[in-house]
Amino acid sequence: MPSSLSQEFAPQTTYLNTAAHGIFPARTATVLRAAVQEMAEARMDQTAYYERVEEARAAFAALVGLPAERVATGSAVAVHVGLIAQSLPTGTEVLVADGDFSSLVNPFHVRPDLRLRQAPLEGLADAVRPGTGLVAVSAVQSADGRVADLAAVRAAARAAGARVLVDTTQSTGWLPMDPELADFTVCGAYKWLLCPRGTSFLTVPEDGGGLVPAHAGWVAGERPWDACYGPIDDLARSARRFDESPPFLPFLGAVPSLALIAELGPAAIGAHNRELAARFRAGATELGHRPVPADSAVVAVPGLGDAAPALARAGVEVSARAGNLRASFHLYNSGADVDRLLEVLADHAR
Known about the structure:
Layout: E1 14-15, H1 26-40, H2 46-64, E2 71-74, H3 77-87, E3 93-97, H4 102-109, E4 115-119, H5 124-127, E5 132-138, H6 150-160, E6 163-167, E7 184-188, E8 200-203, H7 248-264, H8 266-286, E9 298-302, H9 308-313, E10 316-317, E11 319-321, E12 324-328, H10 335-349
Helix pairs in contact: 1-7, 2-7, 3-4, 8-10
C-alpha cells in the first residue's frame, strides 16, 4: 500500500480487527468533526447533507459496478434483509449456509410461514433444489473467513428459478464481485469500507426484485420535498423507494471513506490484505496451530479464541468468534503487524 497512507491512519494499537469495525481515515474524521461542530452551532445545511447521501450512494454503486438507481441506502444489514424477508410469499423456501451471520439468517427465521433450510457452505450450490425460492449467503463468512463459491451458487439458483441474496459486508472493499452473481446484495459499510457504523447499502434488480417498500417514508417519494405529508402515491422509480431515512453523520463520513477505497482500488487492497493473511496463516501453522484454509483477508484459528484477551493486553486487537481467534488484515496493516501478532501468540503459548 502507498506510504501516503501514514497520513490517513495512526492506530495506537496493532489493529487486526477490521472484520469487526474499520478504522476511520483522517479525511473521514475531519469531516465528522466539522459536521458535529456545525450541528452544535446550529449551522446545519440539511439540503447539503442529503446531497452527501446521494454522493455516497453513487460512490458505492461505482465500487460494485452497478448504476446508482439500483442502490438503496440504510443503517443496518438486518433492516435490508428484513425488507426482503417480508416481501417473500408465504411458503417460500430460503436456503442459507450453516453458521452464517445472524443478521442475514434471522429475518427469515422469524417468519414462521417461510421454510428456512441450512446446508454446509461448501455444499450450498448442491443443496439448491426445485422449489427453492431464495439462496442467501455471505460472500465471506464472518466466523472464519471462508469465501463462498458464488458462481456455483448463482448457476444452481438459476437452474432452479431461485433468486440469490449475497451479504458482502465482509468482502466489499477488498474482494471484487461480479454484480451478475446476485439479485440482491446487502453491505454494512463500517468494516472494510471504513465508514461510520449506521451506513449500509442494498442493491436490487432493475425491476426491484418484487420487494415491497414496507418502511417507505417521505424519502422514498419520487419528489421527497413535495411529499412530506400524508400518503405518497408517487414512490421513487429507483431503489430509493427502499431507502431508510438517512442518519446524517454516518453518511457524511461515508463519502470520504468510500473515496479512499476507490482511489486505492479494491483489487489492489485485496492483494495486499491476502498477502498479510497468508503470512499469518503460515506463521500460525509454524506455531502448531491449524488456521481455517481460505484465500481470504480474514483468518480464523480454531480453539484459540481464548487468547484474544491476552492479545488485547499486549496491544494487539483481534476478535474471538465461534471459538476461533479471528484476525483480519486491511490496507492500514503491514508485515510488522503480522509479526507482532505471531510474537504475542508465541509468548501466550509459553
